[in-house]
């Protein structure tokens, strides 16, 4: 299974509009971060986790020609506004299966009300909605939806075999931690150096990594507070800052 980081940035991306901080002005391509999402590839199947605001740019950059399913973590703009940009793939290959909890579907139905209402316009996104209520099989992969807390909102993390994707959270409940043991690869939220009310700071993320003990951990959903090269020098072994375009193989 191959995991590609399509974007690793926070909700406003990096560089941030109008900002002249050291990170936003950096020439290091690892400091240029589109909104967060990953693509999973296995046996010719392609699964997207979150359709970010930058999905069109991300898909063109990697030459994406097919998409078989989308797993949504929650319905905030930076994680779902790219669904509309997936329409060309839907028009060519048919409706795309989309998976989300009922809480997330409530948000998606508000954002994309025109998709769920009768209409004569042929250019609407074509999706097959699936409500996530427990573990499920997706193209031969066991997908485990897990709950993490993003301020007051329940967000869905996903474990697929030895890989887990945990974004947009400031707390991981104990029962979810138990199901995140024995990972080959953990992708986890690490917004900035300072504490934040709805996201993990770098230190909080590192504390969970130390608790869960994955073989490898990659940090994502990163703001301009974190400069790639400088911060990387202080990370423990097995922990890295992800960057747009990075790929990882998971057995």
The name CATH uses for the topology is Metallo-beta-lactamase, Chain A
DSSP strand content: 25-35%
Shape: globular
Compute the number of helices: 8
- What is the total domain count? 1
H/E order of the elements? EEEHEHHEHHEEEEEHEHEHEE
The CATH first-level class comes to Alpha Beta
Strand order of the largest sheet: 6-5-4-3-2-1-14
Task: Please provide a written account of the structure.
The chain is of the alpha/beta class and 251 residues long. The protein has a single domain, classed as Metallo-beta-lactamase, Chain A (4-Layer Sandwich), CATH 3.60.15. Helix content is 22%, strand content 28%. The chain has helices spanning 55-62, 77-80, 87-93, 102-111, 113-116, 174-178, 202-212, 228-232, and strands at residues 2-7, 37-42, 45-49, 69-71, 96-100, 127-131, 136-138, 141-150, 153-160, 163-166, 185-189, 216-220, 239-241, 247-249. The strands form 2 sheets. Strands 6-5-4-3-2-1-14 form a 7-stranded mixed beta sheet. Strands 7-8-9-10-11-12-13 form a 7-stranded mixed beta sheet. It is globular and about 55 Å long. 40% of the residues are buried. The mean pLDDT is 97.
